[in-house]
Amino acid sequence: MEGIDFENTGSDFSIVFKIVNLVVAVLSVLTGLTELFHGFNYFLQGLYITALGGIIGYLEFKNPPQLYAYASSFFSFLGRGLIYVLIASLNFHSSVIRLLAAVVLLLIGIVYIVLEFIPSIQAPENMQGERGLSTDELEDVI
């Protein structure tokens, strides 16, 4: 195994994360919209779920630096995993379709939480925050 560079052989999972995040965004928006018409009790909950799904979908295509300052939880596996678990827990009621979507969101959220603690898997660039993978602005703290 002489010629193998083990530091650069890791797979790039950014397209997989993009697809998974878009699936979460679509599921969130769709379940949020169904909440809007489910009754007055769930109207605000539907707005909240729809807004979170819209933000998740938006972040897959554009990464505004202001959002990192105010909502940094969208830029880590742990933060996104907890947001996905929150969306899943808000959907655990009434119809079978909503329950299935909640189970999918819950499983994705748990996987993202676990990924936070696996150092060999890096977050994709759109989840890196305003600095991305650059370490130029970091100070030496020794």
Task: Describe the 3D structure.
The chain crosses the membrane at residues 15-33, 40-61, 67-87, 99-118. Keywords: Membrane, Transmembrane, Transmembrane helix. Its main location: membrane. With 142 residues, the chain is mainly α. Helix content is 57%, strand content 0%. The chain has one domain. It has five helices and no strands. α1 packs antiparallel against α2 (43-59), α1 packs antiparallel against α5 (96-116) and α4 runs antiparallel to α5. The termini are far apart. Mean pLDDT is 83; it is low at 4-10 and 132-141.
Q: How confident is the prediction overall: mean pLDDT?
A: 83
Global shape: globular
Give me the count of strands: 0
Continuous helix count: 5
The structural class is: mainly alpha
| Count of the separate structural domains | 1
Strand fraction equals: under 5%
Task: Output the helix-strand order.
Answer: HHHHH
In the predicted model, the low-confidence regions spanning at least 5 consecutive residues are 4-10, 132-141
**CA gyration radius, whole angstroms:** 18 Å
Task: Please estimate the helix content.
Answer: 55-70%
Q: Cα distance, first to last residue?
A: 36 Å
Describe the main β-sheet briefly.
none
Transmembrane segments: 15-33, 40-61, 67-87, 99-118
Protein name: Golgi apparatus membrane protein TVP15
Main location: membrane
Subcellular location: Membrane
